[in-house]
Write a structure and sequence with these properties.
- With about 180 residues, the protein is of the alpha+beta class.
- About 30% of the residues lie in helices and about 30% in strands.
- Strand 5 (about 130-135) and strand 6 (about 135-145) form a beta hairpin.
- The protein has a six-stranded antiparallel beta barrel with strand order 1-2-4-7-6-5.
């Protein structure tokens, strides 16, 4: 079962604000810059945006340049239960028992509801082997673009997890790309 961040104080307000067009214009410049700065200052221990929604720093090779590109991203952690991955993770990136319980992560190419796919999605399509920083730990991962029934099931879980993604999808004609990343 998905542990929705919306149970935390102030999250509903953040969800409303993050669904606005004004947020979509400002956030792509401000949120990643703040996240990178705080992440650097805390030596990878804190992502500012992860105080409301779990997040990772994705390092993937550029689709054309091949150079490493670091991007702070919101994610939906999936906990391991035997062979299957199930949606999970506590709001704010919290996870009891350490990082071992997370088996995979869903990355959402929403681009804050803007017209184009975010560049990091093209990077993962070209170079699926990447690295994430999750709670101060660097983890080698492989990304896979979700499609069909698998994507539909994850999308439903994602909307329960963070409802503003529905607003982002309604705002754009493209299908928002969803990636499942797993440890290598």
């Amino acid at each position: 079962m998905t542990a929705s961040p919306s149970r935390r104080p102030g999250v509903r307000l953040v969800q409303k604000v993050s669904s606005t067009r004004g947020f979509a214009k400002v956030a792509p410049r401000v949120v990643p810059a703040l996240d990178r700065a705080v992440h650097r200052l805390t030596r990878g221990k804190v992502l500012l945006s992860a105080q409301m929604l779990p997040g990772v720093i994705l390092t993937a090779r550029g689709a054309r340049s091949g150079l490493p590109r670091r991007t702070p991203l919101a994610c939906m952690p999936e906990t391991r239960t035997g062979e299957d991955a199930v949606e999970g993770g506590a709001g704010g990136g919290g996870e009891s028992g350490g990082e071992g319980a997370v088996g995979s992560w869903i990355l959402i190419g929403s681009n804050f509801g803007r017209t184009d796919h975010p560049a990091w999605t093209a990077n993962l399509l070209a170079h699926p082997d990447a690295e994430i920083n999750w709670k101060g730990r660097d983890i080698p991962v492989t990304a896979r673009l979700l499609a069909g029934a698998e994507r539909d099931a994850v999308w439903r879980a994602l909307l329960e997890f963070w409802p503003p993604y529905a607003t982002y999808q309604a705002r754009v004609e493209r299908e928002i790309r969803l990636f499942r990343i797993v440890r290598r």
